[in-house]
Amino acid sequence: MGFVSKNDVETFFKKNRIPIFINLKALKSLYFFYSMKKTLFLFLFFSAFIVFSQKQQDSITFYLKNAKGANKFSYLKRAVLLSEELKIDSLIKQTNLEYAKHSYFAKDTLGLTFSTNKLLKHFQLKKDSFSLAKAYHLEALNHKIKNNLDSTFYYHHKSKNVSIALKDSIEIGRRLLSMAILQVKELDYLGCQITTIEGLKYIEPTKEYRTLISLYQTLGNALGHLKKPKEARNYYTKAQEIVKFNNVKSRRERNYLNLLSNIGITFKDERKFKKAASLFKEGLNFDSIETKHPTQYQNLLGNLSSISFRQGYTKKAIEGYKTVLKSRIKTKNLYAQSVSNGLLAEAYLKNKQYELAKKHAKTGLELGKKTRNNEQVLGCLKILSELTNEKTAKKYLEEYIKLSDSLLTKERNLKNQFAKVRYETDKKDKENADLKQENTEKQLLLESEQQQKIIGWLIAGASILFLAFGFTIASNRRKKLLFDSKLQKIEAREKERQQIAKSLHDEVAGDIRMLHLKLAKTNLLDETKKLDVINEKVRNLSHQLSSESFNEVFFKDQIINLISDFFDSDFRIKAEKIDSVNWKNINNAIKRTLFLTIRESIQNAKKHATAKKVTLHFSETKKAVFLTISDNGKGFNVDDKKNGIGLKNIKERTEEINGVFSIESELEKGTTIKIEIPKNGK
Amino acid sequence: MESKIRVLIADDHQLVIQGILSSLKEIGDFDVLTTNNCDDAFQLIKTHQNNNPFHLLFTDLSFDNATEDTNLDGGEELIKAIRNNNFDIKIAIITGHAETNRVYNVISNLNPNAYLLKSKCDAKEIGFAIQKMLTNDYYYTHEIHQKIMRRNIIQIQMDDVAIQILKELPKHPKINNLEGLITKNNGTHLKLRSIENKLSSLRIDLNANNNTDLVLKAKELGIID
């Protein structure tokens, strides 16, 4: 089996080579296409995607629209799955609810469970509480189908609580209505009254008339059972007033008929038979009521007949009951049938037609047991026990008592259970609230701890800042003191220089002058001339050493004077933006340094660089004064250590007051000196 | 006695005093007193002010013989004291100081009637200076005059407004037209009155007779191109 001949292998290759080749070619062309028309390609891709998703949406609406008859469920399910694929939240909810609705009407618990799970999943994914509320609702409906009334009640309650959290009044009202109806069924009229009134609280402000009508009706029913016909009628009439707002015609008609029937019953309970009968008749006169609204027809006719029965018109009552029963058989309403059978049995008994009474009582008992219509079961058992001989009567009576007992306990249990459900959920709510409060308290505690921590940090930070601040102040003060002492030093040195300059000028130059005069008298002209040169040199030296008082003369004037001393038609000096600096606020030591720098630079430019032009540029910022001196002289090698003592002095003077000195020079291009001096010595 | 001009000479160097004295003798007949310190000079002027006041004062700027007790320790201080007392005396400075800074400060603050340099000065110049001073005029020796002039040029060159005015002036037939064309450092326009003031001070600084002369001189001196 595992043997493969060489021939087979070869043919395998031959067969496969061609498609591989083609694939490569196709890929190449695709790549070419892609690279050439990248944008077009992308555009096509996107438009295809959009068209595709649009198509899917369209098909969902198609499925939803055409979900009828045999295709109903498959279509709806497809819509659900498609919406899930598209991941459009609103569609997911819509399709699931639609599917669930139809499943409920078809009593399809599996379908309901399916939608419930989908909605739960959606809730978990998107945290959309509306889905959760709906999932609980569907779960409640599921239990309703299964006849698990307490579970139904429980899930309605849960759904309602979620809706309360969502502040969705209409949903709250609807769930409360469902709960109230359940309570009526379980004969918990007082609970029902409470529930409906709570429901009304939510629904009355809204314009949800359908739910409002139902709530009024249910409340009326509960009050009717509690033997409060007047109050019941009050709510029925309230419902009547808004029936006109129900915009579905068939529902509106049914509401109208039901209310007639219900109001009639309240009058009946008050023994106002005439009034009640006229209402029932009014209802029965409704156009083609028998075919259009059979249930209402049956109720109205049944009620009318019961009035006849109460008034003693037994025969007339029997006729009515019989018609009702026929109609109920037609509509296959077994529950209502059992009621009719029971009533007929009662009427026949009164009319002494025992066999017929027995027959109807037996059917009523049978149907009542089937449909769990315990009230009828009991009624029928009671009639039967009266109609049969001792032995069977006893049997029926025992059954009656047993059932009655069990019913009572069950009823009590149910009531208790309902109450328990309510109590427990309320308790849970309370617990939750307590937990919440505890949580918030803890949170507050944590927050305050955190705040304390933050405050602690802030204090720590502030103290650090304070320390740093103090330190900087201290160091600044030290720097300032240092700076001041430096300035004092400079001042002292200046004084010394001035002293030297003065003695040079007055003593040395004076002595030379004297010598000069003496020599002039002796006619030694050569010597006289040489002495003249020496005199001039000494004078220059003395001038250079002396630096003028900067307190009395404006710095600008001093600079102008300085320039004037050197200015010549072939040695031009230009001062730019000297007015941009507020010289009044500049320390004298700084001015002196700048002055000496300028003098030294101009001298250098004239003597050593043989420049034709020197430009001084001044500027000022908040913190420093800037000076740039550039000439167009022959320049020099900055790295050469033999550079004059003048430059070195400038550098030292600048650095002494914490300034920055820099020099750039290029042979045959000139020299630029840049000085930056901080105003406050920092 | 009354016809003689009274002269006071103050210098710390006797040699200089001798030189001036001999020059004065060449020039004419003066009633001369000498002193070698400023405090004495001021006292002499003060005491003679009411009867027989001095007409002329020749003084140096720096006096080397100042001690701790000296009140006026230099020519500047002496001149300041005389000006402060409004003594009617013509002041000539005869000194070796030719640095623009000192010259400028002395001339602009103390307004001496003459400024002579010891090294270049002779009897003829002293005589000329005396002549000028006695007719309420001023005499600055050539070198000083040059220095002041050069300084004015430098100052004008550094003055943006002056440069603007000098550049615009030849383009317009009337000064009124300059209004709105000249901008100050802060970007605002110069008013006509300010322009006229500036022009007059420029004429003085550059020794120009009128505005046309001013522009010509400015060009000549290289202030404008």
Structure description:
- The complex is a heterodimer of chains A (682) and B (225).
- Helices cover 77% and strands 5% of the residues of chain A.
- Chain A has 24 helices and five strands.
- Chain A has helices at 6-36, 38-65, 72-86, 89-105, 109-126, 129-145, 149-166, 169-185, 189-203, 209-225, 229-243, 249-269, 273-284, 289-292, 294-311, 314-330, 334-350, 354-370, 374-387, 390-521, 525-545, 555-566, 588-607, 645-656, and strands at residues 572-576, 613-620, 624-631, 660-666, 670-678.
- In chain A, a hairpin with a 3-residue loop joins strand 4 and strand 5.
- The longest helix of chain A has 132 residues, at 390-521.
- The radius of gyration of chain A is 57 Å and the shape is rod-shaped.
- Chain B has 225 residues and is of the alpha/beta class.
- In chain B, 47% of the residues lie in helices and 12% in strands.
- Chain B has helices spanning 14-27, 38-47, 75-84, 100-110, 123-134, 142-157, 160-168, 192-205, 211-220; strands at 5-10, 30-35, 56-59, 90-95, 114-117, 139-140.
- In chain B, strands 2-1-3-4-5-6 form a six-stranded parallel β-sheet.
- In chain B, strand 3 (56-59), helix 3 and strand 4 (90-95) form a beta-alpha-beta unit.
- In chain B, 36% of the residues are buried.
Poorly predicted segments of chain B: none
Helices of chain B, by number, come to 9
Strand content of chain B: 5-15%
What amount of the residues of chain A lies in strands?
5-15%
- Following the backbone from N to C, one meets helices and strands of chain A in this order, namely HHHHHHHHHHHHHHHHHHHHHHEHEEHEE
* Head-to-tail CA distance between termini of chain B: 58 Å
| Chains forming the largest contact | A-B, 32 and 22 residues
Indicate the mean pLDDT of chain B: 89
The order of strands across the largest sheet of chain B is 2-1-3-4-5-6
Give the N-terminus to C-terminus distance of chain A in angstroms. Answer: 97 Å
